[in-house]
Amino acid sequence: MKTLQYDEIHVENLEVFANHGVFPEETSLGQKFVISLTMYVDTRKAGKTDCLEESVHYGEVSSFMTAYTKEHPRKLIEAAAEDLAETVLLQYPLLKGVTLELKKPWAPVGLPLETVSVKITRFWHTAYLALGSNLGDKEGYLNQAIKELDSAKDCQVEKVSSYLVTEPYGGVEQDDFLNACLKLKTLLSPQELLERLHEIEQNAHRERLVHWGPRTLDLDILLYDDEVLETEDLIIPHVEMQLRDFVLKPMCEIAPYKRHPLLGKTMTQLLCELEEKG
Has UniProt tagged this entry with the keyword Kinase (predicted)? Predict the structure, then answer.
C-alpha cells in the first residue's frame, strides 16, 4: 500500500457548521458536518529538528478546513469531500497525500441512523510524459504544451529534457520530429491525465488522420507511478517505450535510474540494450 511509506498526522472529528446539501433547508439553514483527516507526510526532519516549519501545522490545517468548508457549499457530500481534499493538498506542499472522511450526522433521510459519511484517499502522483511535434512551429508547440501543463493547479512540471531531433517512426514519409520527455507531479488519475493531454493536443490543432503520421503535437503517458494499467484507450507503461530511442534518450536525461515497472530495468539499461541491438 502506498500509504505505508509515509508518517501520519491525524485530525479527528473536527466539527463545522456549513450549508452543503440538496434540500432548501440544508442550503439555507445549514447543518453540522464532522471532518476527520489523515495527512501523509515525512515527519522525520521535524522530529529531528523540533522545527515547526519542517512539519504541517495541524492547527492551521484545521482552521483552513473549517473556513473552506463554510465558504464553499456543495450539493453533494462527495463533491464537498473531493474539493476539500484537493484544496488541502494544494495548500500544504509538504503533504504527499490525505485520507479525508466527511460525516453528515444530521442527514435528512428520515431513518434512525447515526451518521452518513464519505471517505476518500488522494495522493500526488508522478507521471513521465513523452512529447513530440513535426509540423509547423515544433518548438513552439512543445513549449506551449509544457506551459499548459505547468499552469494547471493539479499539475506541476518538475523536469523537462532537452529537445531531440529524430527521424520519423512508423514508416510514414514526413518531416523530422522534435521530441522530449518531462516529469510531472499531478493529482489527476491516469484517465483524467489522458483527457487533459488530448485537450492540450486539440489546442495545438492536432488531427488524428494517419497512424504514426505527421502531427503538430503528440503527448503520451509513459509511466504513472509504478502502475500497470490496461484499458480500452490507455496502456501504462507505454507499450513501445523500450523500443524508442527518442523516448529513452530524454528519459535517461531526466530519470536515468527510473525502473520500468514490468521489465525491472532502468532507463539507462533499456537504452544500452536498444543501442546494442542497433
Answer: yes
